[in-house]
Amino acid sequence: MDRTVIAYVIYLLVSVALTIWVARTLSRNGRVFLADVLHGNDRLADAVNHLLVVGFYLVNLGFVALYLSGDATIDDTRGIFEALSTKLGVVLLVLGVMHLGNVYVLNRIRRRGMLEREQVPPVAPQDWVAPSAGA
C-alpha cells in the first residue's frame, strides 16, 4: 500500500476521533453553562447545545476533508510522521479556535443576560421622592 494512502487513513481516523471527542466534551460540559445563560430553560439549553454540536461537526469535519489532500508524495516512514504532525497540528488548532469562539459567544450572551437581570429592581418602587432643593 502506498505510504501516502496510509498517512491519509491515519489522518482521517485520528482527526475524526479528535473531533468527536472534543464535540462530546463540549456538549456535556457546555450544557450546564447554556442552562445558566438561558435562565434555567433546560429544553432550550438542550436544543441550542445540539445545534452547536451539529455546527461544530459540520465545520470541523468539513475542514478535515478539505485539508486531506497533500502536495507531495510520502516516500518513507519519517515522511508519514511529518505529514501527520503538520496536518493533525492544524486540525487541533482549528478545534481550539472553534472552542474559544463558542466560549466567547456564549460568554457574551451570558454577560448580556446578567446585565438585564441587574437592571430589574429586586423590589418594586414603594414611593416617589422629590429631588432636594440643594441638588
Write a concise synopsis of the structure shown.
By secondary structure, this protein is an all-alpha fold. It is built from 3 helices and no strands.
Features:
135 residues, mainly alpha, 3 helices, 76% helix, elongated
What's the count of strands? 0
Mean pLDDT figure:
83
Percent of residues in helical segments?
A: over 70%
Give me the secondary-structure category: mainly alpha
Low-confidence stretches: none
CA-based shape: elongated
Summarize the main sheet: none
What's the helix count? 3
Note the gap between the termini.
Answer: 87 Å
Order of helices and strands: HHH
Determine Rg (CA atoms, Å): 24 Å
Task: Please indicate the percent range of residues in DSSP E strands (runs of 2 or more).
Answer: under 5%
Please provide a written account of the structure.
The chain is mainly alpha-helical and 135 residues long. It contains 3 helices and no strands.
List the helices and strands and how they pair.
Blueprint lengths: L2 H35 L4 H25 L10 H43 L16
